[in-house]
Amino acid sequence: MVSTTERPKGFGHNYIATNRFYVEMESELKASFSECSGLDVQIDKDVYFEGGVNEQQRVFLKQTKFGDITLKRGLSDDLTFWDWLNKLLGGQPERRDMNILLFNQAGETLQAWVLHGAIPIGWRTPTLKADSNGVAIEELTITYEGLSVKTSGVGGVTTDLKRKADGYFSSGAS
Description:
The chain is mainly beta. The protein has a domain at 21-38 and 68-157: Hcp1-like (Pnp Oxidase, Chain A, Roll), CATH 2.30.110.20. It is 6% helix and 44% strand. It has 1 helix and 12 strands, in the order E-E-E-E-E-E-H-E-E-E-E-E-E. It has one helix spanning 80-89; strands at residues 21-25, 28-32, 35-37, 41-48, 58-66, 69-74, 96-103, 109-124, 137-143, 146-151, 162-163, 169-170. The longest helix is centred in the middle third of the chain and has 10 residues, at 80-89. It is elongated and about 70 Å long. It starts with 20 loop residues before the first strand and ends with a strand.
């Protein structure tokens, strides 16, 4: 039996609600979104079976794939993301590092997903209907080249990764 003063192992985690998050670019909070989906990592694999070894399989890891992220928010007069996409449409793609920051109820940043080399690949406006009274929701789809996760701290999460001349990221270590 566990006493009321002791916590069982694994109960010291700081669980957080999913409803308080922001998107940060260039060390500045750019927007509050109502929904963020698609933040995932998948690693391809090949599975081989050895002759005569029936109780196990061999797994060889291949490339890592990052899912595209869809951000949704109420339509506003803030054109930050449209301007970013519009540069791409004009032939001037601009890759940026961006942070998706998750806050606790006290307003402290508990976790940040740092998207490296992010670029918009889709933008959608809401369906406009004269007989509707719903909130107009815009969607932005982002793809990215790499991901890191930071915990604790406050806003302005910075990354030590820099793009090298060959287009890949380096931690700066030789």
